[in-house]
Task: structure prediction
Amino acid sequence: MTEFDVAAAPAMLDIHGLVGGYGRIEVLHGVDLTIREGEIVTLIGANGAGKTTLLRAISGVQPVTGGLIAFEGEPIIAHPPHARVAAGIIQVPEGRQVFRPMSVEDNLRLGAYRRRKAPEADLERVYAMFPILREKRHLAAGGLSGGQQQMLAIGRAIMGDPRLLLLDEPSMGLAPIIVAQIFDVILKLKATGITIFLVEQNANAALAISDRAYVLETGRIALSGTGREIAANADVRKAYLGI
Ligand SMILES: Nc1ncnc2c1ncn2[C@@H]1O[C@H](COP(=O)(O)OP(=O)(O)OP(=O)(O)O)[C@@H](O)[C@H]1O
Ligand SMILES: [Mg+2]
Result:
C-alpha cells in the first residue's frame, strides 16, 4: 500500500478539547483529533474507553458539554444530527441495527431518505459492491447472516452519499473470512473518495489499512501516528494486538 500524503490533504474533521458523557458522568475528557480528506483513520481503545461515545458525538446524537467539532472548517456542534447527515457525515452504528422485518432493498432505500435525487443510481452502486444484497433484495433483512447484515448496514450508509463515513466495529462477531471481506470493502470505499473513521477491536487488520490511527484511553487520546507507527508501538502491541 502506498503511504497517504497527509501533508497535502486538507483537514475534513477537526476535534479540539471535546468533552461529553452521560449526565454527570464525563466520558470524553478533552479529545483532540483530525481527519483529513481521503484518509482511513482508525481509533483503537479498550472496552468502555469512549469510542462509541466519540462517534456519536460526531454524528450529533450524543450531547457534548465542551470543545469544538468542525467539519470542513465549519463548527457543527450546534447542528442537529440530520444536518450533519445532509453535510455527508454518516455513521454505521455498532451492532449494525438493520430493520429486520423489512426487505433488504427497503433497508437500503431508508438510507436515502434525506436525499432529493432518485436513489436508483446509488442502489446500483451498492448492488455492484455487494452482489449478495442484490440477490437477496426482496428478502427480510433479519434472515441475512451477520456478515451480510454488516454489508447491508454499510450499503445503507452509502445510500446517504457519505463524505465522511463513521464505522463502529464493523467486524465485530464475524468469521475471519468475512472480516477480511469487510476490510476489503473499506478499502474500496476509500478508493471511491469516501473518507473513513473506523473504530475497531480488530486492531491488526484495521491498522494495516489505515493511513493514521489514534489510541483512546479512558476518554483521552493517548497516542497517534501513521497506521504503521501505531502497529509497531510496543505498548500498543502489548495492550491491543496481543503480541
Ligand atoms: N447510555 C449510557 N449511559 C450511561 N453511561 C454510558 C452509556 N453508554 C455508555 N456509557 C459509559 O460510557 C463509557 C464509554 O462507553 P462507550 O460505549 O463509548 O465505550 P467504547 O469505547 O465504545 O466501548 P466498547 O469497546 O465496549 O464498544 C463506558 O464507561 C460506558 O459504561
Ligand atoms: Mg463501542
In short: The longest strand covers residues 11-22.
